[in-house]
Amino acid sequence: MIELEGLTKRYGEKVAVNNLTFTVRPGIVTGFLGPNGAGKSTTMRMILGLDRPTAGDVRIDGKHYDQLRDPLTYIGALLEAKGVHPGRSAHNHLLCLAQSNGIPRQRVREVLDTVGLTAVAKKKAKGFSLGMGQRLGIAAALLGDPRILMFDEPVNGLDPEGIHWIRNLMKSLAAQGRTVFVSSHLMSEMALTADHLVVIGQGRLLADTSMADFIAQNSRAYVRVRTPQRERLLDVLRGAGITVVENGNGTLEVDGGKPERIGELAAQHQIVLHELSPQQASLEEAFMQLTAESVEYHAHTGPAPAAQWGEGWRRG
């Protein structure tokens, strides 16, 4: 379990992390979301003792990271997959980590096999692709067979097979009762992986809730209906006190009505339905809705005005 209490980090006048309090619990995959610059990486670095908090506290199974003996056996983390000596082989990189943490040598072979790098175990890391480097970083996180796993952008550089593999791996680890904390900008992947969400913006906690509740609380749910008898259905639904929004594409959007109730009303009045489908926003849409006021870097579509390019810019 990871416990944060009032965790704060300042860099001069800049507040990167602002009074964060939440708990990452075992047995589920907890997603860690936020816009760029929200403070996610800084928070993860403080959990691992790489950055010292300005205020507050963070504990791993009740201890500070620097109190852990053989820390890789408590918590495994992937923060920067390229943090490997380029002249060292995958095998020797993991062996050094194992020897410094009291981990049996045979464990190196096991994790190399788990992440699919056995065939390149003796190859130097400088020749690794981005995806291979990512797999090596995951192997290092798994090396100590820890009860807590923390991953920052774990699917970065992985192909579709690799993404499917890491998704199932994280779910499997959580199913074993381990604590799994994962940060990612890929909302579609997070929606398939995480059970619980912690969302921050500008260093502050915005949400700490289940995936289902997060989407429900930050989006609009409605029932989409198509019928060749629109006017009759409108009269029936409004007569039943059900709010209906007419769309220009010929569909109706029904707020606050269950599909079963709508179907029953249509049947009672012999109204033909061509579509009756409940609609729920995606995780991405709910995330954008919640964090709209917390985005620090806004991009804009279309070409930038010529005046913004500086004196050295000339038209071709």
Please, could you describe this protein's structure?
By secondary structure, this protein is an alpha/beta fold. It is 32% helix and 24% strand. It has 10 helices and 13 strands. It has helices spanning 40-47, 90-100, 106-115, 130-142, 160-175, 187-193, 211-217, 230-239, 259-268, 283-291, and strands spanning 2-11, 14-24, 29-33, 55-60, 75-78, 148-152, 179-183, 196-201, 204-210, 222-226, 243-246, 252-255, 275-279.
How would the blueprint of this fold be written?
Elements: E1 2-11, E2 14-24, E3 29-33, H1 40-47, E4 55-60, E5 75-78, H2 90-100, H3 106-115, H4 130-142, E6 148-152, H5 160-175, E7 179-183, H6 187-193, E8 196-201, E9 204-210, H7 211-217, E10 222-226, H8 230-239, E11 243-246, E12 252-255, H9 259-268, E13 275-279, H10 283-291
Concise account of the structure shown:
A six-stranded mixed sheet has the order 5-6-7-3-8-9, sandwiched between helices. A four-stranded antiparallel sheet has the order 11-12-10-13, covered by helices on one side. The chain has a three-stranded antiparallel sheet with strand order 2-1-4, with helices on one face. It has helices spanning 40-47, 90-100, 106-115, 130-142, 160-175, 187-193, 211-217, 230-239, 259-268, 283-291; strands spanning 2-11, 14-24, 29-33, 55-60, 75-78, 148-152, 179-183, 196-201, 204-210, 222-226, 243-246, 252-255, 275-279. With 316 residues, it is of the alpha/beta class.
